[in-house]
Design brief:
Number of domains: 1
Number of strands: 2
Strand content: under 5%
Shape: elongated
Distance between the termini: 8 Å
Radius of gyration: 20 Å
Mean pLDDT: 87
Helix content: over 70%
Low-confidence stretches: 1-8, 233-253
Strand order of the largest sheet: 1-2
Largest sheet: 2 strands, antiparallel
Number of helices: 9
């Protein structure tokens, strides 16, 4: 993956790159902890009678992990702003695409945070009330639990959030291609397409392989994009009109 090797990288781009890398590593760490201690993500398909006691058993430490998980998508807000600044040129068509990517990534960050935050807030309240509830109360709580998962989780957090996130990758892919950063553009485009297909996993299991592939591509792309932003010249006024990011340096994939 070819990038510029220069010491004039804009601070905003360096910050954006660090945020992308940090968010990606953070997601992997939190995801791994929840997978080992909470059976995540399979637990999302469980029933309230099984999931709520398991959630409560995580204790305050587990609640803190869920809270961190919910906050992590917000790192995309400053990251997207720095990336958009790095991708801007005098081409009005490119400017429109970059702005679209910035907008979509902002929407994605907010939707994903809203979806994930239910676990350390609403679902946590249900989990603490579950042991003391009678059968009628538990039935009502189970309906609330399912509704929160369906609307905040599957609907807003996953479907809308992922649609916007991968839309931002597609927009940045177009901008990168126009800047002739074609390998990274292809990486972004493939990740976007796989993500768009995989986001229908709650509708049909046929697309689960695409979702599994996306789980690998997403952190790899964010890390690669982050490294490129940190190492590449990002002030558009300093970029050559052709072949920005060009040098013999490579970003590991």
């Amino acid at each position: 993956m070819r990038i510029i090797s220069t010491s004039t990288t804009a601070p905003a781009a360096r910050l954006a790159g660090a945020m992308y890398i940090g968010a990606s590593v953070g997601f992997l760490l939190v995801f791994s902890w929840l997978a080992a201690n909470f059976g995540y993500p399979d637990v999302l398909d469980g029933e309230a009678k099984d999931v709520l006691p398991a959630l409560r058993a995580l204790g305050n430490h587990g609640r803190a992990v869920w809270a961190i998980y919910a906050i992590l998508p917000l790192a995309l807000l400053p990251a997207a702003a720095g990336a958009a600044d790095a991708l801007r040129t005098d081409d009005l068509r490119n400017e429109a695409v970059v702005r679209l990517g910035l907008l979509l990534q902002g929407v994605a960050a907010l939707c994903m945070t809203l979806g994930l935050a239910r676990w350390s807030t609403a679902q946590w309240t249900l989990a603490n009330a579950w042991p003391h509830a009678n059968e009628a109360q538990r039935a009502a709580m189970a309906i609330t639990f399912d509704a929160l998962n369906a609307y905040l989780g599957n609907g807003i957090g996953e479907f809308v959030g992922e649609f916007a996130l991968y839309g931002s990758f597609a927009a940045f892919a177009i901008a990168l291609y126009r800047l002739e950063v074609r390998l990274l553009a292809a990486f972004a485009g493939v990740t976007a397409i796989a993500g768009w297909i995989g986001m229908f996993r709650n509708v049909t299991p046929m697309v689960q392989p695409a979702a599994d592939v996306t789980n690998v591509l997403l952190p790899l792309f964010l890390i690669a994009f982050g490294v490129a932003l940190i190492r590449g010249r990002t002030a558009s006024r300093d970029w050559p009109r052709r072949a920005p990011f060009a040098s013999s340096a490579t970003v590991p994939r």
